[in-house]
Design brief:
alpha/beta; 300 residues; 11 helices; globular
């Protein structure tokens, strides 16, 4: 049934059909590979088996992951295979990851009378430990009800999203809420948040008196890059690219509520818990933090 329906323009992907029918994706792909009725030699059988596993991993990522992350999935499952082989088999079977779009509108509104806030980061976002540098920024999300704005706060070392907030405006309340949530809900096992550098661009929200008071209250140090220089907050820009490319731009949302629910779920369950990061050794932010915490406990 899956094989007959999967080519239809309005049909759901194999992953969804397999779930609805209560069968495994690997079982379907293995069945499809056997339909030629040709007896395969050991080498060809090995390649066919890899193709099945690659397709399963690619489906599980919603068609997002390319060869590097697929390779990490296979090796995590115990497969001994090279990246070159994975890339070659993906090309041969029409499988590929997705790449970011190069353009986005500006959301940074520079304050004409900013406070004197230094750049304490100098593009060194990862200092090798948790709660040393947090990065933040605001992005736009298009919905059927108009623009929705998202502010996120991430740890520069683990890349984990610690706090985030949504609003239909660009008031400083948006940033303050995200910061306070990051401080409130940060896992105590990661260490104290007092003295952490809170780095952003020089948008009016980040250099406002309101945020300065909030930062003093929660004991974080404000830091800003230069106006209009994206590299000074490159790590956060990278996160927006991932969110838009791998998730948001692939869906449509009629209401703010739909967008808030969907993006929150993606951040909490996909990005933080499952998405592999090349800069973290191809593991997720939460898995990376757990590794650091375990190592610290063992060293104590």
């Amino acid at each position: 049934m899956i094989d007959a329906q999967k080519a239809g323009p309005e049909m759901p992907p194999v992953t969804r059909m397999a779930d609805l029918l209560g069968v495994s994706r690997s079982g379907y792909y293995a069945w499809a590979a056997r339909q030629d009725g040709v007896q395969l030699g050991p080498r060809a059988a090995r390649r066919a088996d890899l193709v099945v596993k690659i397709k399963v991993a690619h489906d599980a990522s919603d068609g997002v992951n390319g060869a590097p992350r697929i390779l990490a999935d296979l090796r995590a499952a115990g497969e001994v295979v090279s990246r070159k082989t994975v890339a070659k088999l993906m090309r041969a079977n029409g499988l590929r990851g997705i790449s970011p779009r190069p353009w986005r509108p500006v959301t940074t509104i520079a304050d004409q009378h900013p406070h004197t806030i230094p750049d304490l980061v100098q593009r060194r976002f990862d200092r090798g430990a948790l709660n040393l540098v947090w990065t933040s920024d605001i992005t736009y999300l298009a919905t059927g009800q108009g623009w929705l704005y998202l502010c996120a706060v991430r740890d520069g070392c683990s890349r984990r999203v610690l706090g985030y907030a949504f609003a239909d405006n660009l008031h400083t309340d948006l940033v303050e809420t995200a910061l306070r949530r990051a401080v409130t809900f940060r896992d105590p096992a990661t260490g104290s948040t007092a003295g952490v550098i809170f780095h952003a661009d020089r948008g009016c929200q980040y250099v406002s008196t309101q945020l300065a008071r909030a930062a003093e209250e929660v004991q974080v140090r404000l830091s800003v890059g230069r106006t209009g220089v994206c590299w000074d907050n490159a790590q956060q820009e990278s996160f927006w690219s991932t969110l838009k490319t791998e998730y948001y731009d692939r869906h449509t949302f009629d209401t703010h509520t739909e967008a808030i629910t969907a993006v929150s779920t993606w951040i909490d369950t996909v990005y933080n818990q499952r998405r592999r990061h090349s800069s973290l050794g191809q593991i997720s932010p939460i898995a990376f933090e757990n590794t650091l915490i375990t190592a610290a406990d063992q060293a104590a």
